[in-house]
Every structure is written in structure tokens, then in C-alpha cells.
Amino acid sequence: MTAWSVVVPTIGRPSLADLLADLAAQPNQPARVIVVNDRPAEAPPVANFPGALVVPARGRGPAAARNLGWRRADTDWVVFLDDDVRLPSDWSALLLRHLESAAPRIGGVQARIDVPEPAGRRPTDWERSTAGLRTARWATADMAYRTTALEQVHGFDERFPRAYREDADLARRVRDAGWQLVRGERRIVHPVRPAGFWTSVRVQKGNADDSLLRAIYGPNWRTLTECGPGRLPLHLSTVAAAAGLLTKHRRIAAVLWAAQYAEFATRRILPGPRTAPEIARMLVTSAVIPFVAVGNRIAGWWRHPNSEAWPGPVRAVLFDRDGTLVHDVPYNGDPARVRLVDGAAHAVERLRRAGLRIGVVTNQSGVGRGLLTVGQMTDVNTRVDELLGRLDTWQVCPHAPEDQCQCRKPRGGLIRQAARQLGVPPHQIVVIGDIGADVSAARSAGARAILVPNAQTRAEEIVSAPARALDLAAAVDWVLGAR
Length: 483
Hints:
single chain; seven-stranded mixed sheet; about 40% helix; globular; carbohydrate metabolism; alpha/beta; Rossmann fold; 3 domains
């Protein structure tokens, strides 16, 4: 049977409990349910749920939260769900049918999204906006992806700070990598969230994310990402007309602005319920939205003038020490016993000449076990520096496995510490190691990984590695090719 996991990023909405109850009632159960708590660190934690793994994201945004989730899944498929959707009783049966029948090059299967209609009246502007999910392409309200496809494109672009456009960008990159995306027959219900008076104004922040997509894909970005037409040209015209009020042509500008404002407000009012509160909201927000939309687009242009597709170029390489750079001598505290692996010095020098930052991330549990001292460990590391040339960062975990620290590989703490010291984001770092713990640590931190097997590497670690190289020279070729 196909193995699948569910990843749910959340900011603690009460609807999460209903979703997890729906999931628990399904006839087919996922291998893992991973709830990624994206509330800020100072906010109250999201409650634990029976059978669910709760992972903290600390307010990094839904793209980063989903990446944290799928990297913990360890299954063939990952299903992303929003925390406010509801699942019909046949959802998992249809999902499993979709996944098991998917052709090898199908990388993702989307659900069909039902948005309830309001009873006894026409929908409000916000309800009509939410109803657009019914025809949205590749929306992660319910989208299943092959883990291999996610690994190939390095998951979601974490530069997207909100739940907007990050799913369209992922879908584009997955298809560019040669995978197919299809829509299945399973369905979910996506209720309309409550909206305040200024909700339609606040969502204009998404124009900054549109700027990022344009920077990545060029002026044809809407077609490439299947995002559909936008209204920015009309908003620009409205703002320009308003600016004309400050010139000698203020009368003409006033007429133009009034005409464009009236068209926008009328287009939003006529399809709606036309109640007094809704009309008032449309009249006020229609005057404000063009300015907020244009302001956010300009802010996005400023932040993303020349962005490349995620994850961008490799800027740093972190090596495991024992078994990768030097021959493994268990619990070695003697610098005289340090011997470089064949090709290690040349590999490091090639990376250095290419302008990459270079470091080491290593577990040294011998310190925690009392088998060597910190001074002996430091002497050995100093000898490695002498043989290779001074490296840019050394990150060492001295703890024993039973200490349950956050730095010991396969956790990603060492890599995150190295990233902070180097000033390089984890997604632009490659970790080169010889065992599965090195690959898992890279995945946990959001870095890329290359496995260089040796006699101690287990067969299953070789098979599951996202990238493999016969030796350090081939690994460096891979790194330089990824630049």
C-alpha cells in the first residue's frame, strides 16, 4: 500500500481540532500526521493531538512551515491540508485511489475544493473571493505531492511570508522539473473565514508576493504560474489619477479618479447582497485598495529586484568530519592519527577557489561519554584545519546520544548554527556526508545534501539519499554544477 503523510500548518485556529477529528474518522489512515505550529515563539503553544506530531515553526510563514512538515514525513507522498478545511467521509479512500493509480511521472494530485454558498442571499465580496478556490490551480488547501518531487525542487520557497502564491510557485517548479500535476476526484469543504471591515485591504499585501513571482519568471509570470489576470494596471491608473489632483490638471484628474473609483466600487457592490453594511464596506475599501495594492507592489519590487528561482545558488558547503574529510578513527583525540580521505584537500581547494564558504559539522559524542576531552577534540580539529587550510566555521556537538540535545545530527541544529555564523540561509548550503544522519540533518535544517558512501554506509541510506556521489571530487562537481 502507498505510504502517505499529512502536513497541516496552523496558527492555532479552533477549526484545527475539527479537521483532525475528520482525519481520525477516515477509513484509511496516514502513516504520520504532522501539525506545524506556526505561531510566534511567544504565543501559547498549539495543543498536542493524539497521534499527531506537533513541530514548532515559530512564525516563519506557511511555506517554511510546510517544508518543516514534509521533511519529517518520510513517506512516498505528502498531503498538505489547510487547518480550516473539512473532510468528507470518503476522502481518504478517494485519495488512496488517486495515489496508487498515479503514473510514475505524476508528481502531484490536487483535490476539488467546495466552498459553501451563503443561504438565502447573494455572496459578499469576501465570500466571492474565497469561492475562487473552486477553480484555483494546485492550491495547497488539499494538495498531495510525491516526496521525491519536493526533494528535487527543494520544497516551498520560504521567501513567501504568507499563504499566497507559494503554492503556485511550487507547482511551476515541479512541472519545470519534468513532473505532471493532475486534479483528482476527492473533495474537501473550505468554509469561508470570518472577515472584518478591512480584510479586503489587508489581503493586498499579496501584491508584494506578485512582485517576487515577476522577478523570478519575468513579465509572463501570470501565465507561467496559472495565477490568472490581476487588476494592478487599473489600480496604477487610479493612483496616477489621484496624483493628478496635485497638478494644474486637477479637474481632469478628479473626473478620471471618480470614474475609476465608481467602476471599481460598482463592480464589487452589484453582485453582492447590497445590504447597508456591505455597501458601506465596499465604498470605503474601494477608495483605499488601489493605493495599498500599488504600495505593496512597489515594496515588493524594492525587496525583490532580481530574484532567482528557489533555492538559488549554492553559497556554502558543510562537510561531515569523520568518514568524509578524514578517515574515521573512533573517539580520536590524537592529532597524529588524522589522515585525510583521498581527494579531500583538492575538493576543499576547488570549493574555496569558487568563492564558497566552507565548514565542518560533526558529532563528537566521545566528549559527552568521557572518552576524550574538549582539548583533545580541539587539537584534532586544529590539525584538520592545518591540512585543509583554515575553514570558515566549525560546529561540533559534544553531547552523548542520551542527552537528547538539539544539535546532534540527525537533528539540524549544527547546520542552522553554521548558517547563522556564515550569514548564508540554509537553503543555499550543501551538506556532504557519509551516513544517513548527515542527510537527515541537512533535510531538517532546510539545506541540500550529498551522500558520499563508504564501507560504513548502510545500503538503505544509499538508496534513500536525494543525491549521491562516488567520491568527494564527484560531490564537488555536483555542487559547482548547482551554482
